Amino acid sequence: MARSFQIVEASIEDIQAAYKSGKMTAHHLVQAYLDRIAAYDKDGPKINSIITLNPHALEEADKLDAAFKRSGFVGPLHGIPVLVKDEIDAAGMPTTLGTLVFKDYRPPRDAFPVEKLRKAGAIILGKTTLSEYAAGDTYGSMFGTTRNPYDLERTVGGSSGGSGAALAANFATLAIGEETLASIRRPGAWNAVVALRPTPGLVSRSGMWDGYPSPVAQMGPMARTVSDVAKLLDGMVGYDPEDPVTALGIGKTDGSYTRFLNKNGLKGARIGVLRESIGAQSEPESDDFKTVDAAFEKNIAELKKAGAIIVDPIVIPKIKSLLATRARNPIVTDQALRVYLARNPDSPIKTHQDIGRSLDIDKSFPPTKADQWKKPPPPLDHAKYLEFLEAREELTFNIFKAMADNKLDAIVHKSVEHQPTFIKDGINPPYSSNRGVPALNTFLVYASSMTVPAGFTSDNLPVGITFFGRPYDEPLLLKLAYSYEQSTHHRKPPKTTPALP
Fold this sequence. Notes:
Elements: H1 12-21, H2 26-41, E1 50-53, H3 57-71, E2 81-85, H4 112-119, E3 123-128, E4 139-140, E5 144-145, H5 161-168, E6 174-179, H6 185-190, E7 194-197, E8 218-223, H7 226-236, E9 270-273, H8 287-305, E10 309-311, H9 319-323, H10 330-342, H11 352-356, H12 368-374, H13 382-405, E11 410-414, H14 423-426, H15 440-444, E12 448-456, E13 462-469, H16 474-488
Parallel strand pairs: 2-3, 2-6, 9-10, 9-11
Antiparallel strand pairs: 1-3, 4-5, 6-8, 7-8, 7-12, 11-13, 12-13
């Protein structure tokens, strides 16, 4: 049966149509993904994007197949396999954070969005690689190195790199990532997949490392198509009393996000082009930067061809100097850690200090991370943090005033200003990690932002274009991104992980 259905690049619509026609069962689909993971993640090119597989995935698929025979789909994501970044809890599997320190950490409860997805009929297939403690690029003592399916010598980006690579290589239909800096959008761009960091308040963070009361860290949907991202977002949104920020999301959605998908969505849309380099450690004079820039020029032409009204360039006053003030609040970070660990009352790890005392702490990668845990959290630099908060407010007004003055629907910019870096540069001092990464949306906290595949550079490496919008503008961004996707069809699977014979 499975041979009559090609799972490479299969969408939710394709899969559920195959279920209805009898060409495919959930059991056969899960097995097909497991076969690809065995052939390409653990063998062959050894993408190495999966840390843990759900030992009950086939059993869960069988239950869904039986339910379908009795009464049809149990929910809108019936029989759809989802991979979850391994900083997000899924009961029955460890949450390792990519580090040996947490190799035995077993949460008793699902994260709130994971629980919702299961109720919608999704199958949690497994947990994906990430940067150790979800900070940086996708290397960790728990698993080693994840390789980019488009160039095995290059990184997948971070920190949701395993989710991006697994989607690129067709190891699941959907994936979940998390973003504090650019951790959803960078691996999205570098793995030629669609990735959305929702405005905080739409998706709960309970059961996620660095969740509430952290203002920035946010779970988000990743998929190979805009339509599938919209459907996954449908399954994740909702009010959760355990994450009070979700009270802000009430009333922001009405029905499925798929109703905003419009092939002609770019016609007449006013799009501002942000050309100023805002990526961390970007080198605008380098050949690598110019290679990405050349691809971006083609993207702007594609937007025009699709009917968009281009405002080029859009200038944001003081954007670089304001972004440079970014600072974190270690007090809130420590509170978020305690809130997360408290969901697992039987765990021996309950505090920052417990992590620092682990026998495996010195195996953390890079080595500097071990030092951060061995020391107590640093004191809050009140003056520096106040400067950052003032800069955040000023930049918020500068951006949205520029959008208002130019009557913009959205802003576009390069998802990453450099091509994927070489693994050898990331695993050796000085551990190059965030080169060329724009983090405008997470600086502001309350903004909507998503990346869409935007073709390939002259080096045949994926690039993405980011659609940036106002808070809770996800419907508009999905509309614009879908129109761009449908007019360009840039997504192409990597040659390193072809269809199995």
